[in-house]
Amino acid sequence: MNRKRFKSGQGMLEYILIVILIALAAYASVQLYGKKVKEKYSQSTQALAGQDVKDEGPGTP
Q: In this structure, what are the phi and psi dihedrals at residue 56, rounded to the nearest 5 degrees?
């Protein structure tokens, strides 16, 4: 019985660690690319509204 409970706890811990790693990767990518995505989204909404948009082209840092 204890062995089965141990394996169940071990499996749960592995899933928790995977979720934590995914959350850290998502947080890091938002920190890295968040500002650029916000700028592109803003440009898209301005273009759809018919306003002039300053576009520096794809891949411009």
A: -95, 5
Number of neighbours of residue 31 by Cβ within 10 angstroms: 9
* Distance, CA of 5 to CA of 18 (rounded, Å): 20
For residue 52, tell me if it sits in a domain: no
Contacts of 47 by beta carbon, 8 Å cutoff, 6+ apart: 53
Number of folded domains that form the chain = 1
**55 has a pLDDT exceeding 90:** no
d(CA 11, CA 8): 5
Q: Read off the pTM.
A: 0.56
